[in-house]
Amino acid sequence: MDCSDSLIGIVDDDAEVRDSIGMLFRTAGISIRSFDAAESLLASSELSAMQCVITDLHMQGMDGLDLQRELTRLGRNVPVILMTAYPTPEAREKARRLGVARFVSKPADPEWLLAEVEALLDA
Fold first, then answer.
1. In 11, 38, 57, 78, which residue has its Cα 20 to 30 A from 48's Cα atom?
2. pLDDT digits (tens, 9 = 90+) for 54-69
3. What CATH number does the domain containing 52 carry?
4. 75: left (phi over 0), alpha (psi -120 to 50) or beta
């Protein structure tokens, strides 16, 4: 699949993480929108166009699991990749039960992350 017409959302309260992931996807020809909070993504006029969301688990306000819950509540069946520097079996299980597409330990390998997003966009 040609992913150049895809739009993904990146949600992380760490600007360096957003910038680095954003650069990876822009280099691959995939459009991104970056947000410093889940609430900002949910308020975006482009939410309905997003085909994948990459989010941090631990953020101020709404966390990554809350974001998955809200996307589901809104009927946005978009694949979510949840990243965390502090993976626990409990968080992994909650993510699985909520329908998170991928649960990833930070720092995520950039090539793996790109391949996973491309696979989710192809699905």
1. 57
2. 999 999 999 999 999 9
3. 3.40.50.2300
4. left
